[in-house]
UniProtKB/TrEMBL annotation:
Top-level taxonomic group: Eukaryota
UniProt keyword annotations, A-Z: ATP-binding, Glutamine amidotransferase, Ligase, Nucleotide-binding, Pyrimidine biosynthesis
Protein's name in the database: CTP synthase
Lineage per the UniProt record: Eukaryota, Viridiplantae, Chlorophyta, Pseudoscourfieldiophyceae, Pseudoscourfieldiales
HAMAP family, per database record: PyrG
SUPFAM superfamilies given in the database record: Class I glutamine amidotransferase-like, P-loop containing nucleoside triphosphate hydrolases
Domain (Glutamine amidotransferase) ranges: 313-572
Gene3D superfamilies: 3.40.50.880, P-loop containing nucleotide triphosphate hydrolases
GO molecular function: ATP binding; CTP synthase activity; identical protein binding
Reactions that this protein is recorded to catalyse: UTP + L-glutamine + ATP + H2O = CTP + L-glutamate + ADP + phosphate + 2 H(+)
InterPro entries from the UniProt entry: Class_I_gatase-like (IPR029062), CTP_synthase (IPR004468), CTP_synthase_N (IPR017456), GATASE (IPR017926), GATase1_CTP_Synthase (IPR033828), P-loop_NTPase (IPR027417)
Length: 587
């Protein structure tokens, strides 16, 4: 087993995940079986309870593991299926060690960070690295890529750094390669590429007992020869092992960038492999065409995403990637417009503190509930409706909590009544059902019990098996089966499932109330996908509409660059008026 460790220095967010994923692409193209492990040095057991604003999206795995978004990068780039144990956190390690201590497994010894925590980390890595990722019991990986989260020198990552220092000797020099991702900035005034940040980062790494074999240097432009030579001199890394990961037009160029700079030869030298650069180049032909196609497409499709966490694009990273995959398949350039759901709501509903405070209410030109003037809120409201009316398609993704839900309901109403293609995901399906109950069936007070526990028309309810006392890992999570109720539906035609069922990943606590299903279906809201019991609604769609489909599951999690999600593909086809032709031809 060979191990490639990817660490980072200077600042976070340099692209360690993309670098690690790109290395995996090259190794797979060379014919090796590859797996990946992400180390997150936070005390949370997993990412499930973290705010999207702080940490980005929570990526859900087949086995229900809630993980860091980098595992999504690994799955998409390397086309593998990972498990919850492929994401290591400080919380998981300490939990495992403390449980062993409580059982008496340490036989009275004093339990310490070294050796007990560091041994647990090494044992975890070795155990997970040997687990097959392709479903074949005999297909054990040849290479394990390990990404160490954070930056070298962080106090919380110290136990992991020490464990990895020991690990290099456990597995042997020929089986361990350290790739350090660092930054070479250019100061605007001087205009010179500065190597000092990387020098200090490598110095810190070496002081901790880890010697980088390769540098992946991030920069805006191409690295100058003199800069590479300086880095080689002061970082003790051959110039041939310095890879310049400069900015590119799209991330699919990154593996090609690594390939052109001799990464295959460097990995062969360090890990004593015999990979053929010619073979890798040939195997990446489709990858290269995809990267070039994305840059060359000119016909645009405007998709408005009505979300709750639009302040951070990483909160919807898998949704964005799934849209990109579908756009490449449909040969259109994605014009993604972000729209804060709350901005679609009437200003009065967002400024209750101003409008309904009784006789002591401040004057109308005072700040609203969000600390903004009424004029500012009204201007945002007007702009929001101008934005959604410019859309070729409206996408309402998942989310939790009451904020912005009325805006999502209004977006679903606009798409339904205006004939604009609509794709709802998780909460996006629930808001579509609420809208249908209110405006088609005639239940103006219909709502979800998540937002209004006492609603007289609870068309969305808490799942019976859900926990009301614990949050972490208590939702309906992971891959679940959806039975297609009829093959005469747009969803079934898009999935082209000969077996009559599909497996998609879920992450939710609330669902469509089974008691409302008959009334919804009689009114024209068809549930064309249900779970194996027939009581849990998975896919809804409307007839006599260009494209109105919503799913309780998250189809974005299983979308791949070469195999886009069927529901996303149908959405883009509908938005570009190609859906009918596709459904007739099946291609």
């Amino acid at each position: 087993m060979k191990y490639v460790l990817v660490s980072g220095g200077v600042v976070s967010g340099l692209g360690k995940g993309v670098t690690a994923s790109s290395l995996g692409v090259l190794l797979k193209a060379a014919g090796l079986r590859v797996t990946a492990i992400k180390i997150d040095p936070y005390l949370n057991i997993d990412a499930g309870t973290m705010s999207p604003f702080e940490h980005g999206e929570v990526f859900v795995l087949d086995d229900g593991g809630e993980s860091d978004l980098d595992l999504g990068n690994y799955e998409r780039f390397m086309d593998v299926t990972l498990r919850r144990d492929n994401n290591i956190t400080t919380g998981k390690i300490y939990q495992a060690v403390v449980e062993k201590e409580r059982r008496g497994d340490y036989l009275g010894k004093t339990v310490q960070v070294v050796p007990h925590i560091t041994d647990a980390i090494q044992d975890w890595i070795e155990r997970v690295a040997h687990v097959p990722v392709d479903g074949n019991p005999d297909g054990k990986p040849d290479v394990c890529i390990i990404e160490l989260g954070g930056t070298v020198g962080d106090i919380e990552s110290a136990p992991f750094v020490e464990a990895l220092r020991q690990f290099q000797f456990r597995v042997g020099a020929e089986n361990f390669c350290l790739v350090h991702v660092s930054l070479v900035p250019v100061l605007g005034v001087v205009g010179e590429q500065k190597t000092k940040p990387t020098q200090h980062s490598v110095q810190t790494l070496r002081s901790l007992g880890l010697m980088p074999h390769m540098l992946a240097v991030r920069s805006t432009g191409e690295l100058e020869k003199s800069t590479s030579e300086k880095l080689a001199l002061f970082c003790h890394v051959p110039t041939s092992h310095i890879i310049n990961v400069h900015d590119v037009s799209n991330i699919w160029h990154v593996p090609l960038l690594l390939l052109r700079q001799g990464t295959i030869g460097s990995l062969n030298t360090v890990l004593k492999l015999n990979m053929s650069e010619a073979t890798v180049t040939r195997e990446l032909t489709q990858w290269r065409l995809r990267a070039e196609k994305w840059d060359q497409m000119t016909k645009k499709v405007t998709i408005v995403m009505v979300g709750k966490y639009t302040g951070l694009s990483d909160a919807y990273l898998s949704v964005i990637k799934a849209l990109q995959h579908a756009c490449i398949a449909c040969s259109v350039k994605l014009d993604l417009v972000w729209l804060e759901a709350a901005d679609l709501e009437p200003v009065d509903s967002k400024s209750t503190a101003v409008a309904n405070c009784g006789p002591d209410a401040p004057p109308p030109d005072s700040d609203g509930a969000d600390g903004e003037s009424i004029e500012t809120l009204e201007a945002r409201h007007t702009k929001a409706w101008e934005t959604i009316r410019s859309a070729d398609g409206v996408l309402v993704p998942g989310g939790f909590g009451e904020r912005g839900v009325e805006g999502k309901i209004l977006a679903a109403n606009y798409a339904r009544t205006s004939g604009v293609p609509y794709l709802g995901i998780c909460l996006g399906m629930q808001t579509a059902v609420i809208e249908f109950c209110r405006n088609v069936i005639g239940m103006p007070e219909a709502h979800s019990t998540e937002m209004h526990q006492a609603t007289p028309n609870p068309c969305i309810v808490f799942m019976p098996e859900g926990s009301t006392t614990h949050m972490g890992g208590t939702m309906r999570l992971g891959s679940r089966r959806t039975i297609l109720q009829t093959m005469d539906s747009t969803a079934a035609k898009l999935y082209q499932s000969a077996s009559g069922f599909i497996d998609e990943r879920h992450r939710h606590r609330y669902e469509v109330n089974p008691e409302y299903v008959d009334r919804l279906e009689k009114a024209g809201c068809r549930f064309v996908g249900k779970d194996e019991t027939g009581r849990r609604m998975e896919i809804m769609e409307l007839d006599n509409h260009p494209y109105f489909i919503a799913a309780q599951f998250h189809p974005e999690y299983k979308s791949r660059p070469g195999r886009p999600s069927p529901l996303f593909t149908g959405f883009i086809l509908g938005a570009t008026k190609q859906l009918d032709m596709f459904l007739q031809s099946g291609s």
